[in-house]
Design brief:
By secondary structure, the protein is mostly helical. It is elongated, with a radius of gyration of 43 Å. It holds the Pfam family FixP_N. GO terms for molecular function: electron transfer activity; heme binding; metal ion binding. This is Cytochrome oxidase subunit III.
């Protein structure tokens, strides 16, 4: 590939050199014949309607500044038409944004963009919340989440666990003893998949993962509330990792 590119460059260079030689020969012939080649008019000159040098005497204003003469040239057409278009655009802009108010101003456009972003954010958070499972679930401490979890609890869970979580057919949910683990992940998993052999159904078809996370968070929040008529502890003692570390540190200090 490099060789091909180099060969093409060599060919182009040779063609340019031949073109230069031919132009030089033509220029010499014209000089011998007493002819003078007329300078070619470029597209830039045509676009700006520049006058030939021979006509500059007609537009000379007589002002000379260190050899620089002032000429009465018209503005270039492209600049002049661009200026006219900018005036038309300004009139349309003024009418639309400040008179008829058919389009939002920059501040209003910003507010609309913020509202649209909030809608998208809410939709994203809603989808993200429903993507939670027993491996990614976290404790929800917001009051709105705990209230939503409480609402589910008092309408679904109280027949077996009591209205305050004191226990009934099912175990007490306010003490530190658990039959199937007391971490957020354990509680979420127990609610989601149930314990069929002990009569607890799976709730994954009744509630979304976000709702199960709210319910599990509410159950975690009622630990230590000591409701009346609490059922005796069942299962194994459960302590959070942080609490275990604190107990170990206290025991070491006492020794």
């Amino acid at each position: 590939m490099t060789g091909v590119i180099f060969l093409e460059l060599m060919v182009i260079g040779a063609l340019l050199y031949n073109l230069r030689v031919l132009l030089e020969i033509k220029r010499k012939k014209a000089a011998i014949a007493g002819e003078k080649l007329k300078p070619a008019i470029s597209w830039w000159d045509k676009l700006n309607k520049f006058r030939p040098v021979e006509q500059e005497v007609n537009i000379d204003l007589g002002h000379d500044y260190d050899g620089i003469r002032e000429l009465d040239n018209r503005l270039p057409p492209w600049w002049l038409y661009g200026f006219y278009l900018s005036i038309v655009f300004a009139c349309i802009y003024l009418w639309r944004y400040h008179v008829s108010h058919t389009a939002p101003l920059s501040g209003e456009e910003y507010q609309l963009a913020v509202k649209a972003a909030e809608v998208k954010r809410a939709e994203y958070l809603k989808k993200a919340a429903n993507n939670v499972d027993e491996n990614t679930v976290k404790y929800l401490s917001e009051s709105t989440d705990l209230q939503a979890g409480q609402k589910i609890f008092v309408t679904t869970c109280f027949p077996c666990h009591g209205k305050g979580g004191e226990g009934g057919v099912g175990p007490n949910l306010t003490d530190e003893y658990w039959l199937h683990g007391g971490s957020m992940k354990d509680i979420f998993k127990t609610i989601r998949y149930g314990v069929p052999e002990k009569g607890m159904k799976s709730w994954k078809d009744d509630y979304s993962p976000a709702q199960i996370a709210q319910l599990a968070s509410y159950i975690k929040s009622i630990k230590g509330t000591n409701p009346p008529n609490a059922k005796p502890p069942q299962g194994a003692l459960f302590q959070e990792e942080g609490a275990k570390a604190a107990d170990s540190a206290t025991l070491s200090a006492s020794n």
